[in-house]
TrEMBL record:
Residues 1-10 have a biased composition (Polar residues). The gene is rsmD. This is 16S rRNA (Guanine(966)-N(2))-methyltransferase RsmD. Keywords: Methyltransferase, Transferase. Its EC number is 2.1.1.171. It comes from the Bacteria.
Amino acid sequence: MRVVSGSQKGRSLKPVPGNSTRPTTDKVKEALFNMIGPYFEGGLCLDLFAGSGGLGIEAISRGVDKVIFVDRDRMAIQTIHDNLSSSGFTEQSEVYRNDAERALKAIIKRELVFDYIFLDPPYKKQQLVKLMELMDREALLADDGTIICEHGSDVHLPEQIGSFVQYKHENYGMISISIYKR
């Protein structure tokens, strides 16, 4: 597992120990960023099921200003901190140990609006539609923002969720990427 492109291209990232997380493969990560970027001129990003932090770190490497990382697993949080430290991105990040819904409620209170939101929940516990409906109601995505969902290819997300419309969808074996815009 590594940073695929940008300022930290080639940097190895530590995976979360154990079997509790499933890191995005470098091939899928590269395809995902080619679909939404591949490079950025600033912006605020939310990595809601962050795992090792690989997606958010890739986003910073490619030009995003700041990423808020959220995961509920203690080992994942430690791994995110380690990966941010080794990549030099600690100052461009906030890391929180929380479940997705509680994290979103805290974010709503801060009145943050994101340019990019990564949703890569555990495949067995998909809550994508419910979380996206909350994000839509609370206007957490900038008008020209993007939501990127990684999910099992057996999960079929609706073409529209609230004001979010799916504009790209690709399958990579057992993994699918669905991208939404307002």
